Amino acid sequence: MQAYIPIHRFEISEVISMKLYYADIRGIDEKDALYPPLSGNRGSAFGVSLLAAAYDDYAGKPLPKIIRLLSGKPFSSDDPEYHFSISHSKTHVLCALSEQPVGVDTETHRFIKQSTIEKLATPGELAGLTFFDIWVLRESLYKLTGKGDLRTMRFYRRGGKIIPPYEGVFCRLYPDIEESSTAVSSYDNCFPDKIIKIPAEKLLTKEARKRLAKAEKFKE
Predict the structure, then answer these.
(1) Nearest Cα to Cα of residue 148 among 137, 159, 156, 157
(2) Is the pTM of this model over 0.85?
(3) Deepest of 86, 129, 183, 219, by most Cβ within 10 A of its Cβ?
């Protein structure tokens, strides 16, 4: 028996009320991140630092106080006007800042055993999507709704359109982050055309940026 999952419904807007940002974190030390991490996971400090850059660009305001709920989801009660979602992989960090609830995920492409792929995805899904596309779609939708099982959510591509497992949600894949699969989920079917790339040095402290600048100058 399939469980009923309540979905919030929002009026679909013709105005894009969301921006997406990413940064390449290869070659920089997370100890030099501008903001402290929200968790012990690698990339967390860079994710928070990227979110600060997003607030500055999109909202024109400093990063509000961020806490982690019991579910593990980051949240700010100081600025309920905006919703955000953060994802970090071994090579990149990604975040969304939106006036509507949003979920994002990115994964660096790597080798996965075929037996593992077959356990986690159906032939119908794999007919239209890569395994990593399927996985980031599941993760982004879970971050949006907080519901479902990552192992059994089913996504399909039919006629070029991504079909999520629930009604009332919309999902999109982005090719912008190199060697990665990236997905965004929302209750609003208005997505930005591209993800804005933020220079990695903007995620670092002033001291770290100075050291990087000196190192680059020395290379010349």
Answers:
(1) 137
(2) yes
(3) 183
